[in-house]
Amino acid sequence: AMEKSYMSVFLLLVAISCALAKDVGKKETKETKETTTKPKLPQTLSRGWGDQLIWTQTYEEALFRSKHSNKPLMIIHHLDDCPHSQALKKAFAEHKDIQQLAEKFILLNLVYETTDKNLSPDGQYVPRILFIDPSLTVRADITGRYSNRLYAYEPSDVSLLYSNMQKALKLLKTEL
């Protein structure tokens, strides 16, 4: 009998969280952007990479959104306990132009690896940033300055990252 009651409590929790998610979705469409009462939900997804930006939750959702909005996808792999990730995050979040340009992308930051091998073309290191176009092709031609870790960026590389973001948007216009 104990197991059954645990199960019903668990199901109840699931139902509550789904209902909350639905409510948040409704509110967001009604409210205009000017309102200061932003739902706290998207900020946790940013993990500090840009709290004003809209971040997707999963790789699958990011691919879907990229394909359907015709925006390129930028994926940032990082880890909380990695000093290089932390340093890059700080530089990324404080770079006004990057933050502004990032609005033109579907954004995803991950603290775990996906099963998609295309996202680790030269290894599973962090931090690494990959661009994917709406045809769902990883842009192997948009790389950082390190030949041994093609998609790695240091905080000092933010201007290169910025121009790579511009490149990802330009390629989109010329190819599609």
From TrEMBL:
Gene3D superfamilies: Glutaredoxin
Gene Ontology cellular-component terms listed: endoplasmic reticulum; extracellular region
InterPro entries: AGR/TXD, Thioredoxin-like_sf
Entry keyword annotation includes Methyltransferase: no
GO molecular function: dystroglycan binding
Similarity comment: Belongs to the AGR family.
Protein name: AGR2 protein
